[in-house]
Batch of 2 targets.
Target 1
Amino acid sequence: MYYRCELLVGGNVHDVTNDLVNWDDVEMSFKRNDYDGVVRSFSTKFEFSGGAYSLLLREYQSNYLKSSATIVFYVRNNSWLLNEKFRCALDYSTFTYTDISCEINAVDNSLASLIKAKKGTQYEYLVSELKEAEPLYYDRLEMSSNIEWVMTGTHEEKDGKSYYYNIYDFGAVSIGNQFFTVPLYMKNTEIAVKDVVEVQDVGLENLGGQAITSHCIFKNISDHGVYINIKAKFKLHLEPLTITTTTTCYIKMFYFYNENKGQGWIPIANSTPLHGGEYKEKVPISFGENIIEINSEKFLIYGNGGYIVLAVYGQGKVKIFQEEKSSSEETLAINFMEQDAPVDINVIKPTVLLNRLLKSINGGNEGVTGEISIPAGDAYKGVKNAMIAPAESIRGIPNAKIYTSYTKFANWMSSVFGFVPVIGENKVTFVHRDVLFQDKLVKDLKDDTVDLNYNVSSSMIYSRLKVGYDKQDYDSVNGRDEFHFTNEYTTGITLTENAKELISPYRADAYGIEFLAAKRGEDTTDNDSDSDIFFVGAALEGGKYKLVRSGYTISGVISPSTMFNAMYSQRYMIEANARYLAAFAEQLSFTSSDGNSDVEINGVRETNDIALGNRLFTVGELSVETGDQGTPSDLSGYIRIEKNGNVYKGFVKSVSYNHGKAKPVKYSLIVKSVE
C-alpha cells in the first residue's frame, strides 16, 4: 500500500490504515504566512471505524479525561520504504462516536501551532533573570535648559497707563557702596538636568556693598564649569524721589567664581545713542526711558558655587518702573546645554528574550530554542548591535520587569531589521527576508500543470507607507528634537487607498530613554512608559556596553555629539525592507513626519525620497495543479512553470498534498517574474 496510518495507544503501535474512513480529506500542506518562512499543516479531523474505533473507545472508557492517543502518517518513497510525514496527538475533548465509528480532532503540537496559539500572549519576566552580566553605560544626552525671569514690583495706574515699580533708597553713601537686587520672577522655566544648577526668584533686597549667594538668581552647584547664554531686554524708566538723587544710577550683572573667590561682571549693552550699543561693565539708567540689553554667549560660570546677581546702585532715592503691557515680553533668559551624570542600565540580548518567550510558549519546558541568523557585513550592523532596555530597567526600579509577547518581538524584528521567523520542529530562526526569497530554481514543473490562474493580490498594493515608531508626548521642549517617530511616504500608486505600516512596537527614541533615566531615584510611582520596551545600538567595550555613535554623523538636532540610535532611523528601516517594499513601489516620496524632520544622517536628509531598487517578488499570485507529487526539499527558491509561451517563476505560498488518494498537487505561488 502507498500509505500507512498508525495509532499509538497505551504504549503499543497499531496499524489502522484500513480503518481510517476519511482518507480523501487527509491533506498535508506547506504554507507561508506574512511573506516569511514556510510551515507545515494538515487536516485536523479523523474518522475511524473497525479496530481503530474500538481502540479509541476503549481508551476513553478506561482513562476518561486522561485518555491519550497519537496518530502517525507514512508515505512510501520510490524505494518502497515508509517515510514519516507527520504525527500528532489526538484531542479527546473533541471525541464523538456512534455505534460503528468515531471522530476525533488532532492536536497539532508542532512548534508552529504552539506559536500561533500563544503568540499574542503577553508575558512578564524579571530583568535580573535575563540581563547581561555587563550593563549599558548610558552617558546621557546633552539637554537644553532655559530659565526666564520677568521684573516684578508694585502695581500702579498713572496717566491712563499701568506700571510695575520698585523704590531703591541708596542713601547718601558714595555710589557703588549700596547695591539692591532687581526683583525677578521666573516663568517658562525648564531645567532638564539634575544636580547642576539652582535657580530662584529674587525680591527687592539691600545687598550692602556686595552681592551675596542667598540673593542670586542662578547658581552652579556642580563640580564643573557651565557655559551659559544670557539674553535680556528691558525698557526701564527712572524718576528721582529726593534732592540727593543723582541724575543716573546703574544696573550691573555680577558673576561670582564661587563662595571664596572673586567676582566679575557680565557685559551689558545699552542701545541708547549715548553708548552706541557697546558692551559695558555697567549701564547707566538716566531720567526717562532706558533700553537695557544683555546678550552674552558661552559665558563660563565656574563650578562649586559660581553664581549670578542682577543689581542696581546709585545715590539718593529713585523709582524705577516699566509699563505693564510690555512687562511680560521683557525678560531675562539664561540658556545652557548640559548632561546629567552617567548611569548603568541593565540590558537584554534579543536572542535571550526570544528564547525566554519560546520557553513560555512551550509551557515552561525546555526543548525549543530561538536564534537570530545575522549575515556578516555593515548592512546588518543595526541588528547585530541591538540591545533591549526595558523601561523599568532604565528607571532603575527594584525588581524591574519586562513585558512583551512573541508577536511584539517578531513585529519589531520585521519592521526595524527586515528579519522574519522560520519555524522548524523545535527551533525558531529569524533570518532576513531576502534569504527566504532567493533567485534560485528549486523545482521545474515545466508544462505539467493544469488550471492555471493568475491574479493580482490587492492586499499587497499600497498608496502610502507609514514607517517608524509611535509618537510620544514628552513634558519637555527638548522632546521636539526627537526624530524616532512616524514618517509617511507616498508610493506613486493610485489604485488603492491602503497604507502599509512598518511600526515598531519597541521604542528607539533617545529622549524617551533620557527622560526615564532622569526619573531614577525619585520614587517608584507608576509611569506611563513603565511597560514600554526600548532598544539601543551598543557594543561591549571595557567591561560595559557603550552606545554606538561612530559611523554616524548627525545634524539637525540639539546635540549631534551625544545623539544616538541613528542606525534605527526610519530611512534605515526602509532600507532593511527595501526589496520587500519594492513589490509595490519603485520610489517612496516623503510627505510628513510626527517628529523632527530636519535630521540629516551621514549627509542624507531623512525627508529625501527613497529609491527601492530590485524587488523580491511582484504582487501577482499564480495557482496551478500538477500530477508531480515530488516535494521541493528547499522552499527558499522559486518554482518554474511553462505555459502558453510564458515562463512563470514563483515562490511557494502554499502547496497541498493528498496522500490518501491520487489527487493533483495544488500550488499557490507568489510570482517572482513572468517572461
Target 2
Amino acid sequence: MNLPTNNREQLIKTTCPRDCYDGCGIVVHKRNGDIVKVKGNRDHPSTRGPLCAKCAVSYNGAWLDENARLLYPLKRSGTKGSGKFERISWDDALAEIASKFDEIAREHSTDRIYHTHYTGTCSVIAGQFPKRFFDHIGATEVDPDTICNAAGHTALAYVFGDSVSGFDPRTSKDSKCILIWGANPAHCGPHVYQHWLHEHGAKVIVVDPVRTKTAASADLHLQVRPGADAALAFSMLHIMTSESLVDENYIKRHVQGYEEILPTIQKCTPDWGQSKTGIPIKLIEEAARSYASGPSLLWLGQGLQRQPKGGNIFRACAMLPAFTGNIGKPGAGFYYLNDTIAIGERRGAPSVYKKPEPSDGPSPVSQMDIPALLQDPTAIQSYVVWNCNPLASNPNQASMKKGLAREDLFTVVIDCFMTDTADYADIVLPAASFLEFDDVCSSYFHLMIGAQVQCRMPMGESLPNQDIFRKLSTAMELQDAALYEDDRSIIEQTLRESGVQETWQELVERGWTYITDEPLILWSVGRFATPSGKIEIASERAEADGLPRLPQATTDPEQKNGKFRLISPAADWLMNSSFGNDRNVLRMMGPATVTCHPQTASDLGISDGDQVRLSNELGELQLTARLSDITTPGALLVYKSRWLKMEENPANVNMLCIARKTDMGESTSVHATEVTVSRID
C-alpha cells in the first residue's frame, strides 16, 4: 500500500489480528503522516465503539513505541538468557541462518529443525505463509493447537467429523438459551460479552468452576467442581431422558449410539450428579430443562478441555445438542471455534495454506513434548520461534529454560518485541506489526473477514513475517514459486475462495464483510463428516485409536494430602502473552496474585495480602494471596501468561504446570496442576 505523504488528517480502517473472539474493527487516526491514536471502529458490528481496554492501552503504547519495539536484526553476544546482543545486517543474519540450516541438512536431517508458532497474529498471510518455507525444507512443526485446543478438536471430530463449523452468532436472535461451558468472553472476547451475549434476551447459563465476570452476569451459574464436567453433562442428560425432553425423531435420523449410552445416562441421577459436581440438584434440573426446551446454543470453551480427560468431557457435552436436536435450525447449534474461511468455501483451502513441493515432511509434535526435546541434542538442533513466547506460555517452565540455554541449540526468534524467549536466541529478527502491512483477518467467532491495512511504514528495519521468509528462501537458493508468491495475489485468492464478493479495495474501504449476507444455519442438511454420516456418540474411530467407544461418566479424583487444584485461565489485561511488556498494562494488572477461597485461607492461616508459596515437584512460586469465593474451596486461581522478565522473580504460573497430555489430541492439561500452599512469614 502506498501511504500518502501530505499533512492532512487521515482515518484508516483496519482490523485487530489478536487471538480473540471479537475480530474488532479499528480506526487509525493519523496527522502529518504520524499515528496519533488507535481507536475502535464505531461502524464495525463487533466493536460498535471503543476497543477493549487492553488493546486501547497497548496499541497506543508499546506498539507505537520505538523504544519497546525490535528495530534491527540482532546476534547474541553474551550467554543465553543474558539478553546481550549486537546489531547485524539483514544479509548477515539471513546468511547465518541459511548456513546453519544447510549444515543441519548436510550432517543430520532437516527434521531436527523445529518451528513453533501461535497466534501472536491471527492475520492470514503473516500467520500462515511461513509454513510454506518450513514444509519445503522438511522441518518439524510444533503443533500450536496442543498448547491450547487440540483435545477439543479431536473429540468433536470423532462426534461430528468437524470441529471448526460451529454456529453463526447472528442466529442468536432466535435462541431461547445460550449455554457457555468453560469460556469467559469477558476476558477473551470483551465485545462478544458486552454486546452479543445478552442482546437478544436468551437465558444465559455458564458452567465454570470460577465465578468469572461472565458467570456473574449470567442468569444461571453452575459452579462445577474442577474435573467433574462430564458428570454434569451426564446428569443433565439423565433429566432430559427421564422427562422426555430429548428429540427422538432427530436421534433416529441423525445420531448413532443413543441406545448404547442410555444405560449409563440412566445411572447418572441428579443425586449422583450433585455428589460428583458439587452443584445443587435444583440448578442441574433448571439448566437441563432450559437447554432442552431450546432452541439453544452451546459454546464449548477452550478452558474446558485443558484437563486430563478434556477430550472425554467434550464428547460428553456433545451429547446435549445431539439428543435434544439443537443442531441445524435457527437459534440452535454448537460452537468451539469457527474457521471462517473454510466455512465460506469448502472447495479447497485458500492459497496461503498451500504446501509447496516437497510437502511430505515429519509429523507435528506436541508442545507438551518440547520441554524434554529441547534438552536432547539428538532431537532438536534448531528452534525457530515466530508469533509466540513459549518460555512464558508453555508448561514445565524450568525445563524450557534449561533447554533454551543449550549452547549447541541454534535458536531464531521472530517478533515485534524482545520476549522472554528472545533473550535465549542466537539470532533475533524484527517483525513488522499489524499496523505496518496489508493482510486479511478472519474471526473465529463472527463469520466475517476483515481488512488489515497498512497504516505506516515498518519501524526500523522490521519486516512482515512473509517477507522474512521470502528473503530466507532467497538466501538458501530455494526455487519453489510458492515461496515467493506476492501478498496481493494471496489476498485476492483468499477472498475468492472464502465466498467474499468484495474486491480487496472494496474491503479496505468498508473494513469488514460477512461471508454471507444472511445468517448461516450450519449443519442444516443433517449430514455429518463422520464415516456413518451421522453424529457418532458411539465412535468406531475413537475405539480404533485406543479410546473408549462411548463417552464416560467420569470425574477427576479430588485433591488429598494438603494439595489444591491450580487453575490458570486467561487474564483480563493479556491476550495469551500479548501486551505483557506494556508498562501501562502491567500497572493496571498489578502484582501477580493467587486467589483462594476464604475457607481454604482460614484452614491454612492465610490472610488477604499475605505472601504465599505455591509448590510442587517442578518448583515453587511466590505470590500475593487474594481471598475470594469466586473459586471453590479446593481450587486456586492464578492468571496465566505474564512475562517472566517483567516479574520481580522471573517466573509465572507455568513454573508449576506439568506438561501432561490430555486423553486425546496430545494437548495440555494445565488446569489439573496440583500444588501445596504455605504462608511466607
